[in-house]
Amino acid sequence: MDNEVKISVRNLVEFILRSGDLDSTFVGSSRAVDGTRIHQKIQKNKGDNYLAEVSLKHTIEYGDMFITVEGRADGIIKEENSVIIDEIKSTTRDLDKIDEGYNPLHFAQAKCYAYIYAKKNSMENIGVQLTYCQVDTGKIKYILKEYSLKELEDFFYSLIGKYFIWADYTRRWTEKRDKSIKGLPFPFENYRQGQRELAVGVYRTIFQSKNIFIQAPTGIGKTISTIFPGIKAMGEGLISKIFYLTAKTITSSVAMETFNKMEDKGIQFKVVTLTAKEKICFNEKTTCNAEQCQYAKGHFDRVNKVIMEILKKENLINRTVIEKYAKEYRVCPFELSLDLTLWADCVICDYNYVFDPRVYLKRFFDGGKEDFLFLIDESHNLVDRGRNMFSAELKKEDFLRGKKLTKDSSPKLYKVLNKLNSYMLDMSKRCNEQGFYMQKEEPLEIYSLLRSFVKEGEDWLKGNEKGEGYEEILQLYFNILAFLRISEFYNESYVTYVQKDIKETKIKLFCLDPSKLLREGINRGKSAIFFSATLTPIGYFKDILGGEEDDYSMRFPSPFPVENRALMIAGNISTRYKNRGNSIYKIVEYIKAFIYGKKGNYLVFFPSYKYMNMVLKAFEQECKDVKIIVQNSSMKEEEREEFLNNFNENGEETLVAFSVLGGIFSEGIDLKGERLSGAVIVGVGLPQICFERDIIMNYFNEKNNKGYEYAYMYPGMNKVLQAAGRVIRSEKDRGAILLIDDRFVSRSYVNLFPKEWMNNIIVRKSEDVENVLDQFWRA
């Protein structure tokens, strides 16, 4: 029913009564583990009259709503003539400094349990006890108070009264939202070719609680065709929240623009964009404590007020909106954005907020499967991102540096770091002449050393907040925690390898196949929609992204007229590494023929910076009458914008931009109309042959006999398809593409071509290119 709501005791208390500063002062993760262990030990050592982990639930009618509050009391002590509710808390604080007012939330939580129990059992009085255990000493302090049912009832109802405002807002908003969804038309006058079929396929997938993999080229309108059926499904109660997952900021901006268009059509929908903490923080360093940040000081005193203000006034809540209110109310913008996601109908965020075990949103994904919809945009990027999320590495040099920093301040920590450094030295001696050592087994020996570091490191960090090397030891601590966290997933799809070079030695837990772990992420929701212009071959992506046999798949041809594209293949040049020196001048001749057919702007893509610079040098000698710009390997945001600003419509001279396949300009940029006339793609985009790629190849050769394809061929062809996709961005665009590599005419590559590429033209000399383009541009 719409007038029923559930909330846990803990969430009720923590949300309504939170106050004070935002504080990320170091506590230590092992303290939480120790706390749990102590917690269980205390419960176990109590007598027969102690009931541990007792579930309690109470529903009240408040206003016109039924509110259910539930949770588990740590313990209930049943004496002959009395009952005591016991709430156990572990602490690193000196017990002498803890009294009744130490943390009001602790007593508040226990009082809620006490009220529920007393009300259910018709008790006039009940005891409430806080049991504090000091994790370092094991000492225990009890704080016991007795309350009447009337006192507890007044307290409980005061909480519910404050919470009712939020529950009532949520109900009223949901009614308003769903009403607007029912009347929401498709935001464009007509469906494009394939668009209606795509939207129906997405809706059907959600309705059946399934997953789907969709390859849909530019022009179909993937963003609106996935969001629109998702919204309709929410209006019918099929899903509770949409997570629109992206790999890049530009993609999230497109998603927000789509919601903006639908708002123009009358939809009422709350959308929140999450921005990385490092980017949205107002300070140079993200130090979240009251001493160093005005936005952390008193954050919890003000945050609920600003949340309600935003919810009343804003629907599309992007970074700009969040920063505006965070500055006005002096609260942390990142924490504010996280809180706002609780009331959002859609959260636009990076992949890692759903999949990465180190940073995923626990507030949504720690409670089991929910009716969430995952819209995974540009999902071809999730393959390598998935591997990175489930891999972890540590460097010997960080242990050595740590030794120097802690030699005088902590003999125990120094000793552990010395052992870790020695371990890495021993492992480096196992490396072959190329500097690599690999094993399938877990490195169990280092795990125990790392756990020792965590224990000793926490003690050092607690006492050296202003000491030399604090930031470095803290970063090493977090890196080690991440390594240990990833070690929990180690299975047959992992290897451990050590890499040694002149500068450093590192050890890495390397995830070869992220499919099972990605599947765990997918299973946190009801449906997952994977979509991209380049999910080719779709079976490969279905396999490696955690798909299952009964998951759906759909493929769509380009909706743009075939005659608007001239696709040529120069299949008589080898761009393999050994042949690159001989290919330079032939490639230059092809580029010249390609760009002189029409004044315009052109992109030329290469498989590496080195190869690009070899051709660039020769091209500059031959073509002095064109403007040349070049991508470099470390471009800042302003430099990227400056690079793209060169692509003007109707420029005075021809522009040739030298770029790298798989780089920042080969996907995610939108150069419509005359801003881009064509693209030359040199090579088949194979990832550089390296140790990691070879391990992946060997793994999949054993698994499905497709090692080369999974490690090199398919990822390479994906880069080619993405780069070629820059040329035709709308139904009115016309443009040319030239593929240069003899492998493009082989059956194995032709089989990977999209349907609209089948009318390609084979060219054998630069004159052929001139003739083809002369006819094309005249048409």
UniProtKB/TrEMBL annotation:
GO biological process per UniProt: DNA repair
Region forming the signal peptide: none
Matching SUPFAM superfamilies: P-loop containing nucleoside triphosphate hydrolases (SSF52540)
InterPro entries: ATP-dep_Helicase_C, DinG/Rad3-like, Helic_SF1/SF2_ATP-bd_DinG/Rad3, P-loop_NTPase, PDDEXK-like_dom_sf, PDDEXK_AddAB-type, RAD3-like_helicase_DEAD, XPD_DNA_FeS
Domain of life of the organism encoding this protein: Bacteria
Record-level Gene Ontology MF annotations: 4 iron, 4 sulfur cluster binding; 5'-3' DNA helicase activity; ATP binding; DNA binding; exonuclease activity; hydrolase activity, acting on acid anhydrides, in phosphorus-containing anhydrides; metal ion binding
Protein keywords: ATP-binding, DNA damage, DNA repair, DNA-binding, Exonuclease, Helicase, Hydrolase, Iron, Iron-sulfur, Isomerase, Metal-binding, Nuclease, Nucleotide-binding
Domain Helicase ATP-binding: 181-444
Family note: Belongs to the helicase family. DinG subfamily.
Official protein name in the record: Helicase ATP-binding domain-containing protein
